[in-house]
Amino acid sequence: MTGADFVQLSLTPMLIAVLAAIACALPGNFLLLRRQALIGDAISHVALPGIVAAFLVTGVVETWPMMAGAAGAAVVAVVLIEAIKRLGRIESGAAMGVVFTAMFAAGVLLLERSDTSGVHLDVEHALYGNLESLIWLAGEGWHSLLDPAALAELPPQLGRLAAVLLLVILFVVLLWRPLAIATFDEGFADTLGIRTRLLGFALVVVTAVAAVAAFDAVGSIIVIAMFICPPAAAQV
Amino acid sequence: MDGFLQALLLQSGYNAALVAIGAALLGVAAGGAGTFIFLRKRALVSDALAHATLPGVGLAFIAMVALGGDGRNIVGLLTGSALSAAAGLLAVEWIARRTRLPEDAAIGAVLSVFFGLGIVLLTVIQTMSAGRQAGLQGFLLGSTAGMLLQDAMIIALAGLAAALFVFAMRRPMTLVAFDAEFAATTGVDVRRTDLAMMGLALLVTVIGLKVVGLVLIVALLIIPSVAARFWTERADHLVLIAAAIGGASAYVGAAISAAEPQAPTGPIIVLVCSAVFAASLLLAPRRGVLASMLRRRRFQLRVHRRQGLLALGRAEPILDGLTLAVLRREGLIRRDGVATEAGQAEAAKALRDEARWRLVRQNHASEAVAARYDGLTPIEAVLTRDEIAEIDRRLAATSGVVR
Questions:
Q1: I need a labelling partner for B65 at 20 to 30 A (CA). Which of A125, A200, A234, B228 fits?
Q2: What span, in angstroms and rounded, lies between the C-alpha atoms of A12 and A18?
Q3: CB atoms within 10 A of CB B250
């Protein structure tokens, strides 16, 4: 593979994958330590109905409505999980299993029934992503990196992921102390006046946003690997 | 609607009937097997199990094609998926036992890694010449449309086997699910029973791949038992109810999807199942949300009635709106808040009850009785008539009046 081919075909997918992995691993650390690793699993499944709903409402395949939809779906899922845990006195793993499978089924159904054949929103794509299609046609070699006209042709996913990564980093850095305290000792965090439930919620929303951003790159299921594997490896 | 009824009565074609029966058997087996996993609090292990089947499907396909056979042979594909799911299960066990990672992290890691591997294999297969019409995507979300008689028979037989297995293993599995340590002391091999439990889940998962797909088979394992939990407190009933819910929702779901060609079977089955769950959550007689709301409301009304009566008896003013409403509705007070005759009688009774209770609670000898004081239970419900007479005598001696 020559340098030109590499820049054109492989550079952007690799960059996107790296950015996505970092954006997911950061909140993943906290999820893992809070024994909520599978929230990432649940979120990645419910992102599908969120995205489909956002598409049905707005009628366009745009990133921001899709992200909002997925984040909304994640919040709905977390609220439902909590409600089932409390109202039904059901153990959290089972509550999670009930909610995310039901929402995922609803998502698949919506997707199959709605007329989405014309757009690139199909189930398989949603499930395992489409990294290899994110090529940089204008990139004709290493020199293109300095060519503004070619840079403008970069796949938009790259910029989006960079923005999301920035958001995630900001979230983690700004809220480092409360997050760390709430993660290790929720009761102590409460006595310090940290709004632990709000914080947990924010963490879930950030996780959802990261999941959706990574969605284009790796699809909704393998995102879980990005949430769990790096922090788990780090912990071992 | 007609189409749905037809499908429900197995009248809408040979294929649809096969699918409905196969799905129902699968639902029964999944509901029964899922119950034990749910009671063992390992519901999400089934998620890892389900996702771990995918590489097996891919590898089996590749192997069968390489050996010159037809890659779509369902027995071969299911065997492959069972092997890789077993590998995934052992990996979860191993990570959870040998490293510091909690089980949920192990589940997530195994699930995603296996699934990723599976996707890679599927992509490879798509580029193979024999892979053009492989239809392996159907394993992701299930596809019953092209089900053959052979497929349906295999599903039915395996479903039956799973159901028999549940029946045979129900005692040790119940024991382990509730109290693993106690089970160990009675001579049950906990590790082996756990593995059997998971093996059962594995069997169901593998059968379910073709019907609902690997993402949603988890739902059939988890949701029926969680829904059934609202209806009973007994483990043996739980298994039966969960099996019934699983079977019924799979059957109805398959019928709906037969009547509506646009509705994919797997998601419909899961949605029917979750509708059953939602109904159970709301309407179940004892653990349901509605029932506990009613219970709380009744309790609240009883407290207000009692406190209102005590206030009446002590001639204190009643300010609380709800208390006034309760008393007024029972005709204990008039519109202007003055006690009626019945109200005065009830108030006197409440005061006397309270006085008797006070004496009982002061007396340390009757501590067991005093512990049942909640400000609501009339003392007649706790003590015999003779005992109450004794209390009244003592009351009369201390205050000189029995009110």
A1: A125
A2: 10
A3: 36
Six token digits for residue B254:
């398959």
Question: Is A221 within 8 Å of B277 when comparing Cβ atoms?
Answer: no
Token duo for residue A110: 């919506």
Residue B192, CA distances (Å) to B41, B85, B350, B361 in order: 17, 17, 60, 54
Q: ipTM of this predicted complex?
A: 0.80
- Cα pseudo-dihedral B213, B219, B224, B229, rounded to 10: 160
Full-model pTM? 0.80
Return the residue of A nearest to B273 by Cα.
A102
- Backbone torsions φ then ψ of A91, nearest 5 degrees: -65, 145
Nearest-CA distance B49 → chain A (Å) = 13
- What domains lie within chain B, and their CATH numbers? 2-285 (1.10.3470.10), 290-399 (no CATH)
Is B51 an 8 Å CB contact of chain A? yes
> What is d(CA B302, CA A79) in angstroms, rounded to the nearest whole number?
33
Is B223 in the A-facing interface, judged by CB distances under 8 Å? yes
The label of the residue with tokens 């029946």 reads B167
Q: Which tens digit of pLDDT belongs to each residue from A82-136?
A: 888 888 888 888 888 899 899 988 888 887 777 655 455 555 555 555 665 666 6
